[in-house]
Amino acid sequence: MSTYLLVHGAWHSGTAWKRVIPPLTEAGHRVLTPSLTGYGDRAHLLSPATGLDTHVEDIVRLIKTENLTDVVLVGHSYAGMVVTSVINEVPERIAQLVYLDAMVPTDGENAIDVIPLTQFLIDQAAQTDAPWRIPPLPEQPDTGLFGVTDPADKAWLRTLLSDATVLSFQQRVQLDNPAADRIPRTHIECTVGAPPHRRPVPPVQPNGTPAQRWELATGHDCMVTAPVELSDLLLKLG
């Protein structure tokens, strides 16, 4: 049995993984889908001081409190920043790291470095009465709401979304623990509506083995639009 720790991206909550949980648990694995501080059932905790460091602490604390080992750690979107710093803190507890259509930073980078367009969202927030809050991205005519186009799914997803903070995108990743390099890393990329600025996956992992890269022919929120296909890929890692 493996333990899957699934970390949602900005604006979302742990409930976004609802459709992925059954296939993984039915295969005999343990699945945890926490909501980060400021999201979901913890939305009331959002403050200007909530940032990337807060979210890293959320996950590290959970891993230690639950005494988790051999974890398959999955970070979606913004959570690529989170899980990168998490492996720096507790590398001995992580068996696999999965970047799911995620930001993939290097040591010392923030979300603005990885996706410069993030600065535009911060600049927009600066012109409002709450300059530290960044509302969810709007629906797009061609790719829908975070890649979700089915009307019923979009309506459900909207109930999960809440504001992010500027600090989440400004704080920097720490990845200077050599022990983190040993962890195998897998990249799963969603190809429908893929951003042109996505960084290419390095051909070699930090542990010296060939990079593992998979594609899903769906939009960004693949846990909503392609939960079975995503679960099948994750089960290959467990």
In words, what does this structure look like?
With 238 residues, the chain is α/β, with parallel strands linked by helices. The protein is built from 9 helices and 8 strands. It has a 6-stranded parallel beta sheet, sandwiched between helices. Strands 5-6 form a two-stranded antiparallel sheet. The N and C termini lie close together (8 Å). The relative contact order is 0.19. The model has no long low-confidence stretch (mean pLDDT 96).
Task: Kindly summarize this structure in a few lines.
With 238 residues, the protein is an alpha/beta fold. The chain has helices at residues 21-26, 52-65, 79-89, 111-114, 118-125, 151-158, 166-170, 222-225, 227-235; strands at residues 3-7, 30-32, 71-76, 94-100, 133-134, 164-165, 185-190, 212-216.
